[in-house]
Amino acid sequence: MKRPALTKVTMNLTDRDVGNTETLQALLHARNKASAVSSALSLAAVLATRINRGEKLYLRGEDGVTERILIPGLDT
Length: 76
What we know:
By secondary structure, the protein is mainly alpha-helical. It contains two helices and two strands. It is extended.
């Protein structure tokens, strides 16, 4: 299978951003930080698209309580 073309992107990240990237890398078992960021972007794009279509996002905790998740900047 052919690999997709890559584009180099340079970003300035805060310490918090770097920490979040490292957390995601560990939780997603990503091979590197770039892979973790790529996965996060894919997930965010799917969620944003579906929310903008009028769908709602909920999480159910271990205690059975369901909470609606609102993402700032997206029409809800």
